[in-house]
Design goal:
Blueprint: H1 3-22, H2 26-33, H3 37-50, H4 71-84, H5 88-97, H6 105-114, E1 142-151, E2 157-165, E3 173-177, H7 182-196, E4 201-204, H8 220-227, E5 231-234, H9 244-257, H10 266-282, H11 294-297, E6 322-325, E7 331-334, E8 337-340, E9 349-355, E10 358-363, E11 366-372
Parallel strand pairs: 1-4, 4-5
Antiparallel strand pairs: 1-2, 2-3, 6-9, 7-8, 9-10, 10-11
Length: 382
C-alpha cells in the first residue's frame, strides 16, 4: 500500500489496540483521539472481518443512487445544449415540452458540468435602480420595431428590421436590406400587418429612419404609420431599455447566427432569417412565457394589405411647380437626371421649380433643397 495509506491504517490500528495495553476505556480513547465510539467499533468490525485491509480509507460514494439522472435523459440534455446552446432553464423547459421527466434546472446544470460542456460565467450585477417593467395585456396592442446590422461573408454590411409583439414576444416579420431606410422599416410593418393584422401602437427608438422629432421634422415612416391609423411612440434618447424586448431579440438572434454559416448574399441572408424567425416563434421556449413559445401565446388579428398612401402636404406648392413622385430612397428624375431630396422624403409627391440654373424642390410650400443644374439642362414641360 502507499505510504500515506499505511500511515492511516497504522494510526487506526494503534487506536484499536490502545484500550488493551493502556487500561483506558474505549470512550476515553475515543475522546483522546477525537473520534466517536461508533467510529471505533466500525473500525473494529472491519478489522475483525478483513484484517489490516479493512482499516484502509474507503469511498463514501453510496452503493446505489435511486435518484440518479437517467443516462438517456442526460444524453438528451447534452444534445439540446449542443444543438442550440441553451442554458439549464431553457433545456428544462424544452424537456417538459417533449413530455419527458423534468429535473430541476440545477440538476440540468450538474449534468452539463459532469460532461464538461458548461462554461461557467460570472454573475452579472443586478441593476441598482428599481426599473419599470411593462407588458401589454393582449396581442397586437403594441409592437416594438428596430434594426440591426450584420455582415455577409465578404464583410460587407447589411441590415435587418425586426418587429416583436410586446405581449407574446412573437416576431411577426423580419426583413433584410442593404441599408436601414424608411422604406425597409415600412415594408417590414406592411409585411407584418398583411399576415397578422394592425397593431394599436408601434414603439421605436429615435433612429432617423423612424422619426425626425429630434431634428424638428417628420420622416416618411411617421407619416405612413399615422396614415394607417396606428399610434406611434418612441423611447427617450439614450434609454434602450424602453425597447428592451426587441433589443433582447437581437441578442438571441446573434447567438443563433453564430451557430450557422455566414451568408454570402442578401438572398441567403433572407432565407437564414426566415429559419431564425420560425425557430424563435415555434421551437424556442421563452422564460418570460413560463416555458411556452411565442407562437403558443400570440393571438393574431385579421391580416390586411395596407394601401399605398400618397402623402399630400398640408399646403400647396408654389405656382409653376412640376410634380414629381420620389422613390423610396428619396430620389426623383428631372430632365433625365436623377436627383435626391433625402430618404426621409421618400415616397411622397414634391414640386420642382426651375429658376435659371437652379432647381428648387418643395414639399407643399416648404423648400426642401436647391440643386445647381446649369443652363444646359433642358426644361421639361411636365
Amino acid at each position: 500500500m502507499p505510504l500515506k495509506v499505511m500511515d492511516v491504517v497504522e494510526q487506526r490500528l494503534a487506536v484499536l489496540l490502545e484500550p488493551g495495553w493502556s487500561g483506558r476505556t474505549v470512550r476515553e480513547v475515543c475522546r483522546r483521539h477525537g473520534i466517536s465510539p461508533d467510529t471505533f467499533y466500525a473500525w473494529k468490525q472491519r478489522y475483525d472481518t478483513d484484517g489490516l485491509a479493512g482499516l484502509a480509507p474507503r469511498s463514501r460514494r453510496p452503493g446505489s443512487s435511486p435518484a440518479q439522472l437517467d443516462a438517456a435523459l442526460e444524453d438528451r440534455i447534452v444534445a439540446l445544449r449542443k444543438a442550440h446552446g441553451w442554458g439549464p432553464v431553457k433545456i428544462r423547459d424544452a424537456l417538459r415540452r417533449e413530455g419527458l421527466v423534468v429535473p430541476a434546472s440545477s440538476t440540468v446544470q450538474q449534468a452539463l458540468a459532469r460532461r464538461g460542456i458548461l462554461t461557467p460565467r460570472p454573475r452579472r450585477a443586478r441593476p441598482t435602480g428599481p426599473g419599470h417593467r411593462f407588458e401589454r395585456s393582449a396581442s397586437n396592442q403594441l409592437w416594438q420595431i428596430d434594426g440591426a446590422m450584420h455582415h455577409l461573408a465578404d464583410r460587407s454590411p447589411y441590415w435587418t428590421v425586426e418587429v416583436i409583439d410586446d405581449h407574446s414576444r412573437f416576431c411577426p416579420a423580419i426583413t433584410v436590406g442593404p441599408g436601414l431606410t424608411g422604406h425597409l422599416t415600412w415594408s417590414t410593418v406592411c409585411t407584418a400587418v398583411a399576415l397578422y393584422g394592425v397593431p394599436e401602437w408601434i414603439l421605436t427608438d429615435n433612429g432617423r429612419c423612424f422619426t425626425g422629432r429630434l431634428h424638428g421634422d417628420e420622416v416618411s415612416f411617421e407619416r405612413r404609420v399615422k396614415a394607417a391609423g396606428i399610434c406611434l411612440t418612441h423611447s427617450r434618447p439614450y434609454h434602450p431599455q424602453t425597447c428592451g424586448k426587441v433589443e433582447r431579440l437581437h441578442h438571441t438572434q446573434r447567438v443563433w447566427l453564430a451557430r450557422h454559416p455566414v451568408p454570402a448574399t442578401l438572398a441567403q441572408a433572407g432565407e437564414l432569417f426566415r429559419m431564425f424567425r420560425r425557430h424563435y416563434n415555434t421551437e424556442r421556449p421563452h422564460q418570460a412565457l413560463h416555458g411556452a413559445t411565442p407562437a403558443e401565446v400570440y393571438r393574431p388579428g385579421l391580416g390586411i394589405e395596407l394601401p399605398a398612401v400618397d402623402l399630400e402636404p398640408a399646403d400647396h406648392t408654389p405656382p409653376g411647380c412640376l410634380r414629381r413622385k420620389t422613390r423610396p430612397c428619396g430620389a426623383f428624375t428631372y430632365a433625365g437626371t436623377s436627383l435626391s431630396v433625402g430618404e426621409k422624403w421618400g415616397g411622397v409627391t414634391i414640386g420642382v421649380l426651375r429658376e435659371h440654373g437652379r432647381l428648387h424642390a418643395f414639399y407643399g410650400s416648404s423648400l426642401l433643397d436647391t440643386f445647381l443644374v446649369g443652363s444646359a439642362l433642358p426644361t421639361p414641360t411636365r
